[in-house]
Specification:
Elements lengths: L1 E2 L11 H10 L7 E4 L1 H15 L3 E5 L6 H10 L2 E4 L2 H9 L7 E3 L6 H9 L4 E4 L2 H10 L4 E5 L19 H13 L3 E6 L13 H16 L6 E3 L15 H15 L5 E4 L3 H4 L3 E11 L8 E5 L19 E2 L7 E7 L8 E11 L7 E4 L21 E4 L1
Parallel strand pairs: 1-17, 2-17, 3-4, 3-10, 4-5, 6-7, 7-8, 8-9, 9-10, 12-14
Antiparallel strand pairs: 2-11, 11-12, 11-16, 13-16, 14-15
Helix pairs in contact: 2-3, 2-9, 7-8, 8-9
Length: 389
């Protein structure tokens, strides 16, 4: 990994242009995520401004790059960790244990014990068996119950695997008390890439109903964790982060005025637009003489950083230096020998007619869920490289 210095005075809305200009001046031997620390700093401050009284617990899984975490620690961010490894990384870079929550609802018992031993007291749960593990290995810990919520229209819904139905929430709180734990609140996730703030409304109403029932039952909840969902600009532009977050917080404050601690866990919305991937065209071909679409093969694919193209859920934007040419729809694929390594075929991508092997391709808004999804060495291709500016 290389580290460079970004000039002072960069204009916030031109971070991606700046990164692409930097890519144009450099030669890359392999796919590389070019990442801006200052863009992360700007995004943190913008989200923090809009979120008001909410505390940001950055979702480390989105991008655990050392420079990203160092920047966020210096800004006063708190952290949502999904594993022992993420906890150790945050602590090693100066995060305080009381500012880290163990937000994965599926935890190894020994990792719970480790987290407790280093001073972490706040854990997410969605099942009785998880409560029993926490009680055994982190006695008297504070827990919050993650709820399943209905469809929200998010580009990447996060239902089913995580959370419990609202009807299970109060019995879990009762069980927590029996086990000597402290049920302090609720959490949910509206879905990754929830592009407009109004899409939160129904979810917040669902969670607020459970909150009221818990308060009426005497649990005295104090914490509401609104999760992530803050969007990044991919195929479409999104509202400015401070304005978007402020609208969400208006709705949160209307429903949870008695919550003394509000958590937000931006991941994608924090770092996606802080990174651009430098890639290269390996081959442009057709499958037959009358094939309607060209196939454009890049040196990066599903297994080397672009896993979120699965089901074409996340639509990355591609930029080349031939974009002034006429464009036609292309199927875009990665370099591996796995037939599943096709990025966009249902909705082909408009690319220049003159695009050829060796041409540079820049993929925008790739700061989130790329390096962490990159395989170790599938087909012998190395993991996604990183250049930090």
């Amino acid at each position: 990994m290389n580290v460079a210095v970004m000039p002072e005075g960069a204009v916030p809305f031109s971070f991606q242009d700046y990164l692409m200009d930097e890519i144009r001046t450099r030669r890359f031997e392999r796919p590389t995520l070019v990442l801006s620390r200052e863009a992360v700093r700007y995004q943190y401050r913008a989200l923090s401004s809009g979120l008001g009284r909410a505390h940001i617990h950055y979702a480390v899984k989105a991008n655990p790059q050392r420079e990203v975490l160092e920047t966020l620690v210096s800004e006063g961010s708190r952290f949502d960790a999904a594993s022992r490894g993420e906890i150790e990384l945050c602590l090693s870079l100066g995060a305080k244990p009381e500012h880290i929550s163990f937000g994965n609802t599926i935890k190894r018992a020994t990792d719970i014990a480790f987290a407790h031993s280093v001073g972490i007291k706040l854990f997410a749960v969605d099942a009785e068996a998880e409560l029993e593990k926490i009680a055994a290995h982190a006695p008297q810990a504070r827990v919050y119950i993650r709820l399943l919520v209905g469809a929200t229209g998010a580009d990447w819904p996060l239902s089913r695997k995580f959370g419990c139905t609202p009807s299970m929430a109060l019995p879990l709180m009762e069980r927590a008390v029996e086990l000597g734990l402290k049920p302090v609140g609720l959490s949910f996730h509206v879905g990754s890439q929830t592009r407009t703030a109004h899409m939160w409304r129904d979810t917040l109403d669902q969670v607020a109903a459970v909150w009221r029932d818990a308060q009426d039952a005497g649990f005295g909840l104090s914490l509401i964790n609104i999760g992530g969902g803050f969007p990044a600009a991919y195929e479409y532009e999104v509202e400015a982060p401070n304005a978007y977050a402020a609208q969400v917080m208006d709705m949160v404050n209307d429903r949870f005025a008695d919550a003394t601690y509000v958590m937000a866990e931006p991941g994608r919305g924090m770092v996606a637009e802080a990174g651009v991937i430098a890639a290269e065209v390996l081959l442009v071909s057709r499958k037959s003489d009358d094939d309607l679409h060209r196939w454009v093969y890049l040196d990066i694919g599903k297994f080397s950083g672009l896993a979120e193209t699965m089901d074409e859920a996340i639509r990355y934007s591609f930029v080349t230096d031939k974009d002034h040419q006429d464009m036609t729809p292309c199927i875009v694929a990665g370099p591996s020998c796995d037939s599943a390594d096709v990025l966009y075929e249902k909705r082909p991508v408009l690319l220049p007619n003159g695009l050829a092997a060796g041409d540079k391709v820049m993929i925008k808004s790739c700061g989130a869920y790329t390096t962490t999804y990159s395989s170790v060495c599938f087909n012998g291709f190395p993991p996604l490289d990183v250049l930090v500016l």
